[in-house]
Amino acid sequence: MINDARADVAVLIGRFQPFHNGHAALLKAALASAPHVVVVLGSSFRSRSAKNPFTWEERAAMIDGSLAAEERTRVSYLAARDYYNDPRWAAEVRAGVKRMAPAAQKIALVAFFKDVSSYYLNNFPEWEPLSVKVEAEIDATRIRRVLFEAEDLDVSLSVIAPLVPTAVRQYLKAWTFLPYFAPLAEEHKAVEAYKASWRAAPYPPIFSTVDAVVKTAGYVLLIRRNDFPGKGLWAMPGGFVEPGERLLQAAMRELNEETELGVLMPTLADALIGVAVFDHPNRSQRGRTITHAHFFDLKTEHLPEIEGADDAALAKWVPIDQLLSMEEQFFEDHFHILDHFLQLTGDV
């Protein structure tokens, strides 16, 4: 706990998908503890999904709408990428808070330490923890489920009403009329059906997948996904490892099936220059999924022929210098996998 002296700045970190009364209690405590509050909006700069349906700007608007005019002047918003790399993510958050409050000497980290999912808060040992007891724990996942499984939106919004500030309820009602809502509801149902097919397993399954990053002549090979989740989003060719396959074999098979890349398999194998494992527990909304990304550099002066097939609606060679501007169009953590190999966002 912080001592009786007020902190210079209080930091509140979350995804706020959406902002609910539990978050509001934390923000109230933050406002009481410091003259300036920085709200860190996680999972920013990414495509919409059933798990992350709202942009960081929309979430900031929800929070602003729930505050009094004087309180709004004391709250700043820091949009933070996930990175799926804890040290890098924490360094970015620290740097962002420093930019917003350069003179702050004492920083309070306001949080509700609920379970193992709160582990990320331990990345800031230099900040004074202010643990807040929330009277009734509210689950944002449940709120999204009620919203996306609605048979009657008015009924669903009435169910949500006791869980969110009035301004947020009004915001959600208006948001459901936007063109994003229906596809996200469809994606939610597809993901829930996928999870239901594994529910009888004695333990939650851990899936093993592969992805292929193929570079040549200043371009990288991408596909546009044909199915939910992530229908219509850009991704790398990849998929599940089949029984009896080695990882490299699986990566090359998926690459061939989805893009029909005009390169002989021995040539492709010789072009492999790196493999990296991406295992963040929350990288996929379908469940715990660990992928091995294989990086191939063909080093050709021309672009081999390709054609989208199988799970890919389209295969396309995309200039590497355009990838950063496409960040919010990628499936799950695929932009960050590309960033790992191609250094798209630069070093911290």
Q: How many DSSP helices? A: 11
Order of helices and strands: EHEHHEHEEHHHHEEEEHHEEEH
Which class of the largest domain in CATH terms? Alpha Beta
Shape: globular
Strand content: 15-25%
| Mean pLDDT metric | 93
- Termini distance? 30 Å
Number of strand segments: 12
CATH topology label of the largest domain: Rossmann fold
InterPro entries: Cyt_trans-like (IPR004821), Nudix_hydrolase (IPR020476), NUDIX_hydrolase-like_dom_sf (IPR015797), NUDIX_hydrolase_dom (IPR000086), Rossmann-like_a/b/a_fold (IPR014729)
GO molecular function: hydrolase activity; nucleotidyltransferase activity
Organism: Massilia glaciei
Domain Nudix hydrolase: 197-341
What does this structure look like?
It contains eleven helices and twelve strands. The chain is α/β, with parallel strands linked by helices and 348 residues long. It folds into two domains: 9-182, Rossmann fold (3-Layer(aba) Sandwich); 207-342, Nucleoside Triphosphate Pyrophosphohydrolase. Strands 6, 7, 8, 9, 10, 11 and 12 form a seven-stranded mixed sheet that branches. Strands 3-2-1-4-5 form a five-stranded parallel sheet, sandwiched between helices. The longest helix is centred in the middle third of the chain and has 16 residues, at 181-196. The chain is globular and about 65 Å long.
